[in-house]
Every structure is written in structure tokens, then in C-alpha cells.
Write a structure and sequence with these properties.
388 residues, mainly alpha, Growth Hormone, Chain: A, 0% strand
Length: 388
């Protein structure tokens, strides 16, 4: 429960400001490529932070690193406040700081999540985490959009960024209530390479599946919110978009988290993968607020069928025996490196595509091809899902 509270505060702070961060940078640059470089740097430094911080999480105090991740996130928005309208000129610095913040927090969070859950309740925890995320996604962006639209100039953005700063500090406070579980042994810096080089390595298909998941996340995470703003010209409308889609996601995460059994993960993930790919097709009839809303509602409705089995199955594999559980930090680092490898590849595809052409048809095909990567995740995970 405490872990859900810490997670809730962290994602609330990010939902308040992160939803509009891309729009804030877009308004000063009107350049998707620049946003792509900012996101690429975030993913690169997130991956490096996962690998390096793994040593501190295993051999040091993971709670200090968790708090450091929340603190650096607060510092990120403090930096945005300090830079103001010139923030876009320092996109490289912002990308580096955000990457370090996310790397520190999510590595430690996932290690604690593994320790606090087991195969019997992992789907339920992920369902509740999704429910909280959906509630936050309904309320926080709408409140931010309302404030930004009602206040003159950049005042609304500054207030929203300051609120996020305060919520991060609250998250640090709650983290002191979490129980610290000790880890054993020394950090294995090269476990990822050795695990993948073994003949018939069981982790190879899992790494490919995770990379395919990350590929989709990076592109759709940056482009949808900005497209909604471009189509409507209103931060409040972007908040309304988040309110509607998160309301759908709330119901879907609750239902899937409550009723999806481990034995049904394979079919659930396949159906979810197909449906979140199909909802991209309306973009070929023109990108408008209506087609974006169809996409948003469709993804909110079907994404839990994909993400809950994917997340739970990977952590079940990490905990399948005593040896891998002892090396949980290294395996979680491997998971995050695979996700970020996919995110980096996805963002490179995004940047290169826009350098070649920004024609709507080209962008739509890029979205459809990269957006179908969850099918690749299912293909490489299907045997592990059967053994759940």
C-alpha cells in the first residue's frame, strides 16, 4: 500500500506537468525533431543510470536511491522553472536530468515492487497501479489544463510545475515509511551480456519482447499530446482528452487486474496487441481531434490486456527460483535496458522519418508500423505466457 502511495505521488507530479511539458517545449520551437532529441537523450541517460545505479541498489541503500530519483525529478521541474522560455535552448540538459531522474526512481521502484509482491498477487498489484494511474490521469491533466488556460502568459505553467515540485517532496517523505529489505552478494555488472550469450538463452526472446514494448512507448508517448494541442490549440482540451481516456482506462485496468488469470495471459496479451494496433488505422482518414480521441479511448480500453500480462510474466520469470531472485537487481536492470533499447530505436526511427519527410501519409505509416510492435512482444513472449 505504501509503495502504491509513493508511486501515486510520483505519477501525479509527472501527470500534472509531464502531460504539458511537450506542449510547453513545442510552443517555443514548433519542432518535433527537437522534441525527439530531448526524448532520445532522456532514454539514453535513463539506460545508463539503470546500469550504473544497479550497483548502489544492490550493494548500498536502495531507499536513498529511490529518494534521489524523486529528488532529481523535483530538480528537473525546478530547472524548467528557472530556465523559463529559454528551456528549449537547453533541451539537451533537460533530457539528461530527466533521464537520470527516471532511471534512479524506476529501477528502485521495480526492485521494491518485486520484493513486495509475488506471482499470486502481481496481476492485482499491477491492476491497482493502473487504476491509480488512470484516476491521476483523469484529474491531474485536467486541473493543469484548467489552470494554464485561465492564467495569463506562462504563469499557469509555472504554477503547475511548482505543484509538481511539492508533490515530489511529499513522495520523498512517504518513502521513509517503506520497509528496507536487504539484498545479498555483489552487483554483477555484466550479467546481461552473459545471460544473452548463453546457448539457447531463455532471456533472449524476453529481451526482444521488452524492446518491442519500448519501441511503441517512446514514439506514442511524445507525439499524441502535442497532436491534440495542435488540433485544438487549447491546453484545456488536452486536459479533457486526458480526462476522457483515463476514465476509460480506470475501468479497464480495474476489470483486467481483477479478472485476468495467469492462465489467460497469452490470449489477453494477443487480443490487446491486435486491438491497440487497429485503433491507429483511423489516422489514415486524417489526423483530427476525433481520430485522436478514437485512438485514445481504444488504447485506454485495450492496453491493460497487453501491459498487465507482459509486466507480470517478466517479474514472475525473475522470481521463478532462488538463484534468479537473489540476482533480482541485475535482472530488473536487464529488463529496463531492454525497454530503453527499444525506446532509443523508436526515437531514432521517429527523428530519421521526420528528417526524410513530414508528409501525413509517411507519419501515419510510421505510427502504424511502430505501433504494431506489441504483436512482436506477444510473439516472443507467448511461450513464457503459456508457462505462467
Amino acid at each position: 500500500m505504501l509503495l502504491l502511495v509513493v508511486n501515486g505521488l510520483f505519477i501525479t507530479a509527472n501527470a500534472l506537468s509531464g502531460t504539458f511539458l511537450g506542449v510547453y517545449l513545442w510552443k517555443e520551437s514548433s519542432d518535433f525533431v527537437l522534441l525527439g532529441w530531448f526524448t532520445l537523450l532522456t532514454h539514453v541517460f535513463m539506460a545508463l543510470t539503470f546500469w550504473i545505479a544497479g550497483n548502489g541498489v544492490k550493494e548500498g541503500n536502495k531507499m536513498i536511491i529511490l529518494r534521489a530519483g524523486i529528488g532529481v525529478s523535483a530538480a528537473f521541474y525546478g530547472l524548467v522553472l528557472l530556465l523559463g522560455k529559454s528551456a528549449i535552448q537547453y533541451f539537451w540538459l533537460l533530457g539528461v536530468v530527466q533521464g537520470i531522474a527516471f532511471g534512479l526512481f524506476w529501477l528502485t521502484f521495480n526492485v521494491i515492487y518485486f520484493e513486495a509482491t509475488n506471482a499470486a498477487n502481481r496481476d492485482r498489484f499491477n491492476g491497482w497501479a493502473g487504476v491509480i494511474g488512470s484516476i491521476v490521469g483523469m484529474i491531474a491533466p485536467w486541473c493543469s489544463g484548467f489552470l494554464i488556460s485561465r492564467m495569463a502568459g506562462e504563469s499557469g505553467y509555472r504554477v503547475v510545475f511548482m505543484i509538481s515540485f511539492g508533490l515530489f517532496l511529499a513522495g520523498i517523505g512517504v518513502s521513509f515509511l517503506l520497509h528496507k529489505r536487504t539484498t545479498e552478494g555483489s552487483y554483477d555488472w555484466l550479467l546481461t551480456l552473459r545471460a544473452l550469450r548463453k546457448p539457447h538463452a531463455s532471456w533472449r526472446p524476453i529481451v526482444v519482447a521488452l524492446a518491442a514494448q519500448g519501441l511503441r512507448e517512446s514514439i506514442f508517448g511524445i507525439i499524441i499530446g502535442v497532436l491534440v494541442y495542435i488540433q485544438t490549440g487549447s491546453e484545456l482540451q488536452l486536459g479533457n482528452f486526458a480526462l476522457i481516456t483515463s476514465a476509460v482506462g480506470f475501468v479497464s485496468f480495474y476489470v483486467v487486474g481483477k479478472w485476468l488469470k495467469p492462465a489467460w495471459r497469452g490470449w489477453g496479451m494477443l487480443i490487446g496487441s491486435i486491438l491497440i494496433t487497429i485503433v491507429i488505422v483511423p489516422f489514415f482518414f486524417g489526423i483530427s481531434y476525433t481520430t485522436l480521441l478514437i485512438f485514445g479511448i481504444g488504447v485506454a480500453l485495450f492496453l491493460p490486456l497487453y501491459t498487465i500480462p507482459m509486466t507480470s510474466a517478466v517479474f514472475d520469470i525473475i522470481g521463478k527460483n532462488e538463484e534468479s531472485a537473489r540476482q533480482r537487481v541485475e535482472y530488473i536492470v536487464m529488463r529496463e535496458l531492454a525497454l530503453n533499447a527499444g525506446r532509443i530505436v523508436g526515437m531514432v526511427i521517429f527523428i530519421v522519418t521526420l528528417y526524410i519527410s513530414s508528409a501525413p501519409t509517411v507519419i501515419n505509416w510510421m505510427l502504424l508500423i511502430t505501433g504494431s510492435s506489441p504483436l512482436l512482444s506477444w510473439l516472443f513472449m507467448r511461450n513464457n505466457l503459456k508457462n505462467a
